[in-house]
């Protein structure tokens, strides 16, 4: 086998046009972007971040196997079949075998077009050449998964700022993704601190999220969903997807309907208990204390006040609902009184 070659030695493709007049630009018929998962993973560099042990590796391995077979991913999204490279750099062959056997025992299929790699040098010390070798040998590749980004990025150059180092490390992968026109997916971690913008939870600086084409953050939901997948990017529509995990098959499924429908499943009960213990709080403070999405809490508080479960006060603060008096006998108030008589821990559907 010929020695793997770095990207710099790959034969040049025809030069891409980079300048147009406005009229010329409007007349160009650009090809549609290539999708590994339509609406979710597009060509270019994608970053998937989540907390440890949340199931990112199960998710990425499942995506790789399904795309390699051309099977619907996440429970129903149609994809185009093609070779997939999955660099599971925090796993051993035995662990990967156990996971694949678990998937197959639950009804999955063997994936001949899926290549599994458990050892890869950093980008500057042979990793880039290894990826180029595989991509050269698989011109119809659909996806490259790096699990994890930290294992392959290598050491930061001396004297470079953290922002510049994060940007440069990500751009090295993006250069390959753009050169070959293949979607890359980097698996990464989130920081411990919460943030209102899900992109700010990604570990590292804004140089990392600024360099990638799309950012996906998998968070654990507090309702029926096992996770919520937040997505934003240059070619993807910003969205939130409720996700469910089947521990038997190791498979993630995208649930129908807005993620908020699943996140709000037990939100009212949490807010009601918190306001009872700490009356006079604003939604932002409630969200911060409960580690919930501020927009979700604000909307839920408004609805709870409308339904008589909370009392809204001037200034945007909330208090426990005042008990109905004996003279309140209208059908609506009687209905609300009945709702209040349920156990505080009972979870109510929105």
From TrEMBL:
Stored InterPro entries: P-loop_NTPase
Residue numbers spanned by region Disordered: 308-350
Lineage top rank: taxon: Bacteria
Biased composition annotated in UniProt, kind: Polar residues: 339-350
Pfam families hit by this protein: AAA_25
Gene3D superfamilies, per database record: P-loop containing nucleotide triphosphate hydrolases
SUPFAM superfamilies tied to this protein: P-loop containing nucleoside triphosphate hydrolases
Residue stretches in coiled coil: none
Record protein name field: DNA repair protein RadA
Lineage: Bacteria, Bacillati, Actinomycetota, Actinomycetes, Pseudonocardiales
């Amino acid at each position: 086998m010929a020695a793997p070659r770095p990207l710099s030695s790959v034969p040049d493709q025809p030069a891409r046009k980079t300048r147009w007049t406005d009229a010329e630009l409007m007349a160009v018929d650009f090809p549609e972007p290539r999708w590994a998962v339509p609406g979710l993973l597009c060509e270019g560099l994608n970053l998937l971040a989540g907390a440890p042990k949340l199931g990112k590796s199960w998710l990425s391995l499942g995506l790789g196997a399904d795309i390699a077979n051309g099977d619907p991913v996440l429970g129903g999204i149609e994809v185009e079949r093609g070779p997939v490279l999955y660099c599971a750099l925090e796993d051993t062959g035995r662990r990967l075998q156990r996971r694949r056997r678990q998937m197959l025992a639950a009804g999955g299929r063997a994936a001949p077009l899926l290549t599994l790699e458990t050892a890869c040098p950093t980008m500057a010390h042979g990793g880039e050449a290894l990826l180029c070798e595989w991509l050269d040998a698989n011109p119809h590749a659909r996806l490259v998964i790096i699990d994890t980004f930290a294992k392959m990025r290598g050491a930061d150059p001396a004297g470079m700022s953290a922002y510049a180092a994060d940007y440069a490390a990500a751009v090295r992968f993006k250069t390959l993704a753009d050169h070959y026109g293949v979607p890359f997916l980097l698996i990464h971690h989130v920081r411990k601190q919460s943030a209102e913008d899900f992109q700010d939870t990604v570990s590292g600086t804004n140089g990392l999220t600024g360099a990638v084409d799309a950012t996906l953050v998998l968070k654990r939901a507090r309702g029926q969903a096992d996770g919520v997948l937040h997505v934003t990017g240059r070619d993807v529509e910003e969205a939130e997807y409720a996700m469910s995990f089947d521990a038997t098959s190791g498979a993630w499924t995208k649930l129908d309907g807005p993620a908020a429908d699943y996140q709000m499943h037990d939100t009212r009960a949490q807010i009601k208990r918190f306001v009872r213990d700490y009356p006079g709080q604003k939604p932002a403070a409630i969200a911060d204390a409960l580690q919930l999405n501020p927009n979700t809490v604000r909307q839920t508080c408004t609805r709870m006040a409308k339904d008589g479960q909370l009392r809204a006060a001037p200034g945007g603060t909330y208090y426990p609902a005042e008990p109905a008096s004996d003279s309140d006998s209208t059908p609506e108030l009687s209905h609300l009184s009945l709702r209040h008589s349920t156990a505080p821990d009972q979870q109510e559907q929105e």
